[in-house]
Every structure is written in C-alpha cells, then in structure tokens.
Amino acid sequence: MTIQSLPSTFADRHIGARRQADIDTMLKNIGYDSVDGLVDTAVPSSIRQENPLLLTAALSEVEVLAELRRLAAKNKTAVQMIGQGYYDTVTPPVIRRNVLEAPAWYTAYTPYQPEISQGRLEALLNFQTMVQDLTALPVANASLLDEATAVAEAVLLMRRANKSAGAKDGKTVLDADCLPQTIAIVQGRAEALGFEIEIADLSQGLPDGDINGIVLQQPGVSGRVWDQSGVIAAAKERGALVTVAADLLALTLITPPGEQGADIAVGTAQRFGVPLFFGGPHAAYMAVRTGMERTLPGRIVGVSKDNAGAPAYRLALQTREQHIRREKATSNICTAQALLAIVSSFYAVYHGPDGLKAIAETVHNNARVLATALRTAGRELVSDSFFDTLTVRVPGKATKVITAAEARAINLRLIDADTVGVSIDETTTAATLSAVAVAFGAGPVGDAAGFELPEAVLRASDYLQHPVFNTHRSETQLLRYIRKLSDRDLALDRTMIPLGSCTMKLNATAEMEAISWPEFASIHPFAPDSQTAGWRELIDGLEADLAEITGYDQVSIQPNAGSQGELAGLLAIRGYHLSRGDDQRNVCLIPASAHGTNAASAVLAGMKVVVVATAADGTIDHADLYAKIDAHRDVLSAIMITYPSTHGVYDADVREVCDAIHAAGGQVYVDGANLNALVGLAQPGKFGGDVSHLNMHKTFCIPHGGGGPGVGPVAAKAHLAPFMPGDANKAAHEAGPIGSTGVAISASRFGSAGVLPISWAYVKLMGGSGLTEATKSALLAANYVASRLNEFFPVLYTGDSGLVAHECILDLRELTARTGVTAEDVAKRLIDFGFHAPTLAFPVAGTLMVEPTESEDLAEIDRFIDAMITIHAEIEQVASGDFTVENSPLRNAPHTAAAVVSSAWNRSYPREQAVFPVPSLRQDKYFPPVGRIDGAAGDRNLVCSCPPLEDFEN
After folding, report:
1. At what angle do helices 756-789 and 20-30 cross, to 10 degrees?
2. Residue 490: how many CB atoms within 10 A of its CB?
3. Does the pLDDT at position 139 exceed 50?
4. CA atoms within 13 A on the CB side of 593
5. pLDDT digits (tens, 9 = 90+) for 832-869
6. CA angle 599–600–604, rounded 5-degree value
C-alpha cells in the first residue's frame, strides 16, 4: 500500500492559512512570490537571527499529553493543610466543565467592547457584589492578580489617598500576623518607591511616629481572629488609613472590615472554587469605602444604559486605567484574573449565602475538633480564637510532626523548629483530622469542646441577598444561567478577534487539557520540593525554551501579568545599577507611542519618565532621542522600546538605538508584547535587549479569559540574572539587603504556574520550525489585510519596504473629518457582522489596529475584510447624503433583535441592512443583547453592584 500524503502536524492545524492555494492568493495580493521573500523584505537583515531555534522536534498531541502525564506523575498529591493564604477547595463540576474548561469563557477578550461582553460583565458584577457584601464596603473591583500584590496596591492607594497633614508622608505599618509573602512583596515595592515600612504586633497597639496607613490580616497567618475595631479606631484618630486583608469565607461568620471601620479590604477569592494551581492564577479582590472608587486600581464593572434605555454593563471609569494615564497612572495594573473571578462568582451564586455559611461553619467546627484533640493531649495552641488555622507549639519537634504528617500524605506548615501550622478547608474529612492529631502525638479526634468564636467578632449583618445568589441552587438552574451568560458574548470560539497588540489566536484544546488534572491543579505553592518534581521540570524546561526563543540567558516565569513582567525587568535594571554604585541612574526614556504600562511600571520602579518624541513615520525621533540621551547621560537608567514598534512596524534602526543607550551607560528594555512577530526570526536578547517581558497570554497561547489570566515572564542577559525575581516566601525568612538579590514580584515562587502547561504544550507541539512558520504566517496575514484594505482605510505606518509586521493601523481620520463617522462607529458596526472590533484608538486616536494572527484561515480573514469594505460603502452613503451620520446604520450600531423587530422602525435605512448587511449572516446571526451603551452616563451615576431586577423590566 502506498501512502499518498504525510499525516498533518499540529502546526498544520494551528496555522489557519496552510493550503498552498490560500498562501498563493495572499502573496499575489501583496505582490510577492513566496512567504520567505515577504519575510526577508519586511524584517531588517540587521536583526535576523543566524541559526534556527534549537528546540526539540515537534510532538503530536498524543505525544504531548503523554509527556504531560509523565510530568504530572512526578508530582505527589497530598492533603494540603499548609494554609498561608492558599486552601484546597471543591470546584463544582458544573463550573469546572462549563466555565474553567469552556472556550466560550476562556477565549473571551477583556470587555472593552461591552455590547458583546454582557455575559462576562454580569459574572464580574456578581463577583464585585459578592466582595462588597462580604467585606461590607460599597465598591469593589473586578479582581486583581494575587493577595500579596493586592495588599501592595492597597498600601499605594493609602499613600495617595491620605491627605492628613501629619500622616500622609508617614510610614506604613504591617501587622506581624500578615502573610509572610505579603510582607515581602510590600517591602520590595516600598524600597523602590522610597517609603518606610514597619512590622509590628498591632494587637498591642500602634507604634510611635507618623503613620500613613496600617495593614491588618483577618484571620492572621497564625489563625488568630480578634476584634480589630479598637486599633482601627486608634489609627483613624492619628490620621492613618486602614487596610484589612480578609478571608472571604471567614467573613460569612465574623465582623467584616467595613463594619469595623476599615477603608480598604483586600484578599483572595481562591478558596471559592479555584484550584490551588501551584500558586495561581487566583483572583484577588479589593473593596473600598465611598470616596476612594476613582483611584481604585484595576477594572470596575458598572451599570449604565444602552441607546434604548435598557440597563447595560460596561467597564466604568476607564480613564483611570494605566494605558491612558501613563506616567501619571496610580497603578500599572493592566490585566486582572477575570476567568478566575468568574469561577469564584459562580461558586457564590451556586452555594448562596446559606451554603457559604454552612461551608464556613463546617470548616470552623473541624478546626475546633482538632484543637480539642490537641489541647486534650497537652499541645499548646498559640491562640484559642481562630477560624480555620491552628498554630501549635511543639518545642523542638516541629520537623518530627511535619514528617509524621507527610508520611500520612498530609502537608502541614513548618513555621520554625518549635511551631507547626494546620489549616482546615472545605475538603477536610474526619479521617484527615484524626491523622493530623496522631502526627502530633494526640489521639483520634472526637467532638469539639469550646473554641467558639468570641461574641465580639461574630457577624450580625446579612449578605448576598440579591436574587442572583438565591436562585440557582440546582445544577440545572446554574447550567442554564452559565449558558445564558455565555450566549450573550462574542469570544474566539465564535469569531475572529482581530485585536492589534493583543494577539487573540487559537488556544488549542490539547494545550488546555492538563491544567485541571489533580497532579497539577491540587499542588500547594509551598509544598515540599520532593512533591513537586514534575512541576519544576516543566517550568525549568519552559524557561529554557523561552531563553532560546528570545536569545536571553535566563528567564523567570514568576510575574503573573505583562505589567508585572515589566516591573520585574525594570527592578532588575535598578538592582544592577545599584550594585555598581550608580545610585543616580533613575531616568527611563520611553517613546511617546509606547504601551501605557511602560510608563506606569517605570514610576513604580522608582524611575523618572522622560518621553521621546515619535517621528512622522512612526519611528523614534532620532534628534529628540539623542538630545534626551545627552541631557540625561549621567543619570540614564534605561530605555523601554517595543519591537516591532507599537505602530506594527519593524523599525530598521533598533540596533542603533540600543547602541546609543549602551554607550551612555543605560540598559535596554524591549517590551515583548509583539513577540509574535519575532519568534524564530529575530531575538531581542541578540539585537540589543538587556531584558524583556513576554506575554504568554499573547504569543504563547495562554487564553485571555475575559481579561486574565496572564503570565508575563521576564527574560534577561546574564549580567541582570542576579536581580531577577526572588521568592517572596523565602525572602520573608531569609531577607538579604535590597539590591543584592532579586525583588519578589508575585506572592508565589512560580506565579500563575497553573496555566504554564498551556504554553509548555504549545512550544512542544510546534517545535522550532512550527513556531517560525507561525511567525511568518502572522506576517503574511497582516500584510494581506493591509494590502486589501489600504484603498478603503489607509494603512497609517509601514516599514521602509512598504510592509507591516504582524499588525496594521487603519487610519479613519480623513473619513471622520469628511463624514463624521468615527472609528468607534466602525467598531460598533462590526458587531452586526458578528465580529469583535479591532483595537480602537490605540496607539493613535481615530484609528483601528488590526492583528489577524497566524491561526485565522483565509476565509475568515476575507469575511472580516468584506465586512470592512461593506462598512466603507455605508460611510460613503453618509458622504453622498443617503442618510445622515446620526441616522445611519453606523451610528445606531449595534442593532439588537428587539430594535429591528419593533413596529416603530423610523430609520433611513431598511431593517435588512441593519442586521443582514451581508448575505452570509442570514443563517448564523449574532444579536447583541444590548444596543450602544452610554458610557458617560454610567460614570456620572456610578453603580458597581447587581442592580435590582425591576431595572430590567420594560
């Protein structure tokens, strides 16, 4: 038997335009004979890498999953009772399968286009309402990255919000019972920004001196629960603000921070159904008192109305965000943990207030049962008042207890040679309690005797009274609610998302499959190394592959977002300069076109931002660059550049820019947001970069999840390696002098490790040649779009060869000036064609930035192009007077089903044009659930919690 053709590879299924006929069609339109010819012209020869990527040969899906099984088997699962901010939990299967593992949820983009994001926005509004109710504070955000960094954000919020003359410049005091990793993270951020941190036992009162703010933990890391209202009141009397890091499950039983007088509450929603994931991703939260909402970091979902007056959700107060405020930003937070926040919100919806309280009471009672057994056996408890965690003194025998528990497949917390911690969660069984008791040399457990929570800390107020938390008790009800919300949205499972700068490409099922395996998902981040060999082999291998891909010497995957990777890279540069005695080097040059996070991250790293002008062709203005270098030569720390540029072009002068910075004693930070245009073709670490962050949720297929998870590894040359991110948990116990070792960036050593199998699998499935082909295909697709649309929407920037990189900017400014039709009108009109809009108004106002990626096939790319050409024809209808812009299908877009079936149709264009602008939509039509949303009205009348149901009745 003769085999007629070779079996297809994973790369054949990942890359959309793989048929030679499709490739030839695209090349012919651009004017090239081959993809390699196109690439050789587009990518400057001065930066091209000389050798192909030295990665292992591509594996099949079957082989990758087998290898992941091998790695998973090297991890040792155990009953995780280490605590320290991380708890085992039960992810209800209906949520795991239909949210965490469902492409309708994990392939969605950040809800900047709210009309097609109403489902995920409602789920995030549920999250906010859950947090607001449990903390008793009126405004919460839609999640942050992890608890430790959320506390750091709260500390910075207190420092900018405190206007008290005697307190605003004072120190920040952290309670000694805060999580150790939290203390380490805050200390690292404070050192870079130059303010004082003091650690004190706040149960004994406030320390002397001016105090800007205090941070309390409830319950503390020791497990202690106490009435904090007294120290909170004392802090207020001295002009200080107050943050409480609180456990949401505990808040079902104990007095919430808002009722004790706190200004801010922070914490994590991890134990609300989100697996341990070896440290993340987990949704942190922040809630604030009235008056602080406009400086609250992160995203806030608010309630507004659409153009028909119906309630509609949107991201509120977007002008607070770093991409707009740049160096004036109060935070560099760019992403969130939306997918995990959504999981935890559905967990609360499913269990409701009674179910959550029952879980909390069971956890607390089990802790009391164990405490009784230990006390009976003569073991000393550090505190008699606790929720779920016991700290037990066993002089000289802590290691023996830990070893005895581990022999029973139970992990406890080794605090020191004399002290052991035990944390109870919703998965704890009576058999586990008895095994723990025996490990301590006590008898099997019996009933609880005493250890009730003190009357002074018991919660009396109601929470989660909105119907959404009291309706979906059965799996049938919850399943239908999940489906109803997902049906409202457009995600990558339905359509191309042509977002420039955001690389919304295929997140293949084989890549996603391993993340919820227990051998990966149930591992505590502080589990012994003997239990995590598989995890560490996977991470080491991924870091090595990323180093090869980027041309750097070392990679750390710890940063759990691109913005955090930026901060890590800049802190590495800062540490390097300090180690050389160059304390004065604190100026960071940033091109005017750069991502907004660049400037915000530089400020957080203690640097002064100096903006470099952009030339008319989109490149760095060389005259201004050299003038700025000369003016700041002695204090120059770094330059931050994006390559290819934010304008989607391979600038030919990148080596020249890097050389000029190095000659002045500075370091070069290359933003890796656009790495999808470089992999296999050029390496930042070889053409001049000293450090870069990478966006794993872009180039390496970790899905966006509606606005997170993200992973932002930092890659550096050897001279910066000593200043790469440190381990916050280790730093808490072995802290050395700042600047001599890397500053911890995230709460856990490996950040959001739980999603790393996705990128690991992607690299292994593609191999070096497949990754290189993907890059070439991304260039082909972008140049095809640019070529076909240029006569309708001029491409704003191209390289010397007239080509773009992996994305192109379509300029609508002349059309807007001539007709009044805006780029936003085009973005909204694309919804009627079933498309998510391209990136709107970034990096140039009045434009759309399009990135088709390599994973879209020619038919889908052509469908988008046809939609844009049809929209251009409608713009010309406005120009010719067929209808006014105010009464055009563009300004009235998107069109809901309710609007077009209404008998009161009085518009200047027919219903058919409104909803079926091209024939293909007749069979498969997406109707947005709401019309165009009035964002300004939502900001003027800020509502950030679930509205009453009567608001939706028409």
Report:
1. 50
2. 25
3. yes
4. 23
5. 999 999 999 889 999 999 999 999 999 999 999 999 99
6. 115
